[in-house]
Amino acid sequence: MILTTLSFVVVFFRKIFVGGLATSTTKEGLHQYFENFGEVTDCVLMTDPTTKRSRGFGFVTFRDPATIESVLAKKPHILDGKTIDPKPARGSANDGKVFIGGLAFGTTEEDLKEYFSTYGMVNIEI
């Protein structure tokens, strides 16, 4: 499923990047920690495909965008014995890149190119 521009923007401003996570951190632990600040609607822990352990970063999406301010106002954040570094999840304003996830199995590079080419020149990296 490809997100509409509006839903992408709404999710974008409710999401934080969390760096500095311990390799022992779990998705459940990350979710539980940030639930203390507000309702979490999504939590993604980036893991090593072989070991299934944390790669040291993840993303948390809140229902209310104002929750991000509460998270950023509190320092330090300590989870699983490590000081973690939450930041608003924002790509570089100049790079023009958009991450598209949750695509249906079988979605091809050509499918993406066809859909997004209506907005301008497209370079697909899969």
TrEMBL record:
InterPro entries from the UniProt entry: Nucleotide-bd_a/b_plait_sf, RBD_domain_sf, RRM_dom
A GO cellular component entry from the record: nucleus
Any Pfam family hit: RRM_1
Keywords: Nucleus, Repeat, RNA-binding, Signal
Location in the cell: Nucleus
Nucleus recorded as keyword: yes
Leader sequence residues: 1-22
One MF term in the entry's GO annotations: RNA binding
Superkingdom, taxonomy of origin: Eukaryota
Residues covered by the RRM domain: 14-96
Descriptive protein name: RRM domain-containing protein
Organism: Nematostella vectensis
Lineage, highest ranks first: Eukaryota, Metazoa, Cnidaria, Anthozoa, Hexacorallia
